[in-house]
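User:
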Amino acid sequence: MTDPEQRLLAGVSIELSSGIPYIKDTFLENKTNADGEYHFILNEPGKCYRLYARKDSLIGSLADIHLKPGERTLLNFTVTPSAYLKFSWAKYLAGHWLSKSMTKEGKERKLFFNCDWANNRKILKWDWTVQVADQTVEKGFGLYGWDPLRQQLRIWYWNVDAELVEGTVEVGEEKIVINAARNRAEGKKPLVHAWWFEDINTLLLQYGQMNAAGSFEPSGEIYRFTRVP
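Assistant: Predicted structure:
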């Protein structure tokens, strides 16, 4: 394992995964030694394996690896600067979250929010469900990821009606602002909100709008999410 200048790197975190991406993954982890080497013994030939490496702001991944019985494979690759640091806040968002509140009609409302890394650790995938009186009224799924062409973090998500919401993710010192819009046949409808952490296990969400200066202006209720097992 080397850096962009081909110097050997020790202590690089190497993750090996196998299984069906996003559905059933098995992970193993190792670190490179003083010579930049890492070793895995794969005892299930014929499976598809994937490797991922990370150290500080350097990141790297390999294409899928297919081993044949009795085969020994030596791999050499380099980790390079990436957008990982711009996305490092997401490690705190990953997990299971629950928010409870009451509707205007006095019914209990629950918002379930699950967030997890895709196996290349470059995309954060998530899904949500809204229940009122234990009946599901809305659900959907989405992705946070780095857009290399636009050089910015972006978000995409869909609800059960296949409506797409897409926009940018601005990571500030205090809040993560999502400046997005819902794509509909009649045009785009702004959908702006901000996330921020009260502590490691408490996440707050508030909707609002972007002002003429491009800053977030909050309005309405603050939803409090608690990390759950």
